[in-house]
Amino acid sequence: xxxxxxxxxxxxxxxxxxxxxxxxxxxxxxxxxxxxxxxxxxxxxxxxxxxxxxxxxxxxxxxxxxxxxxxxxxxxxxxxxxxxxxxxxxxxxxxxxxxxxxxxxxxxxxxxxxxxxxxxxxxxxxxxxxxxxx
Length: 134
What we know:
Number of strands: 8
Structural class: alpha+beta
Largest sheet: 6 strands, mixed
Distance between the termini: 33 Å
Helix content: 25-40%
Shape: globular
Number of helices: 5
Radius of gyration: 14 Å
Strand order of the largest sheet: 1-2-3-5-6-8
């Protein structure tokens, strides 16, 4: 499987997990010029946008975030919506949710990546996020 097909399968997996937990979840159509995020999801009058990133190794490199994704998530927030989220899938620990603002702060401090062992500090497991956000 290619990186692109791995990523698409992970997006669909996350959307299905959300749906199984009572969220409405929709995967956005992949566009040639990039898309602003992968999933729009909602539950109990709250709507979220998510970009999904699957990692082969135990680190997520911030350069994988496209400029249009960051700008679209900022515009989403500035128009009165919830903050943009990244769902990062790591081998051995599963999927974690991390806020765009946390990633931006890490980047400002000079960090270029986040390791899976740091996710319990900077992010939250997807299963836990669904419990507190739904």
